[in-house]
Amino acid sequence: MKIIIVTLLSFIMSFAYAQNHDHHAGHSKKIEKQAPSNKQFKPTDDLKVRMEKILNHMKELSKKKEDVKSVKVYGNKLTDTVNDIFKTCKLEPDADAAIHPALGLILDGAEDFKNGKYESGHKKIHEALLDYEKLFKHEGWRH
User: Fold this and answer.
1) CA angle 110, 116, 119 (to 5 degrees)
2) Which pTM value belongs to this model?
3) What does the alpha-carbon distance between residue 53 and residue 49 come to, in Å, rounded to a whole number?
4) How far is CA 132 from CA 5, 36, 47, 65, 127, in A?
5) How far is the C-alpha of 59 from the C-alpha of 127, rounded, in Å?
6) Of 61, 59, 132, 60, nearest in space to 100 by CA
7) CA–CA distance, 39 with 131 (Å, rounded to integer)
8) Which residue has the higher pLDDT, 20 or 60?
9) pLDDT of residue 143
């Protein structure tokens, strides 16, 4: 009887694990963009607020880019904001899959900032924000 219960519990846990997508998994430089599509997704209010926060951080940082300490601080701010997106994400599966490469690129750029590499970090985050603009219909978005 114990074997049946353990087997059943293992099956249930495996199924539950497979159904729960972990936003922190797989964010590395190997994230590939999806094929271009004409479809634009509707962002949630939470996502819009946080993407605007990322954009505002980048605008603020552009005025302080010569200050290595500020660049590192903004790297941490950007990482925190992206992690907050992961925590509050309630996107449909297709939209969720579409945003992941952009968020991964923002995290990579933020890591560059933390390592004092403003130019490469800026390039990655700029690309990610352009991708977001193409993929999501965000009313009032001004990149």
Assistant:
1) 70
2) 0.74
3) 6
4) 46, 12, 11, 23, 9
5) 15
6) 132
7) 13
8) 60
9) 64
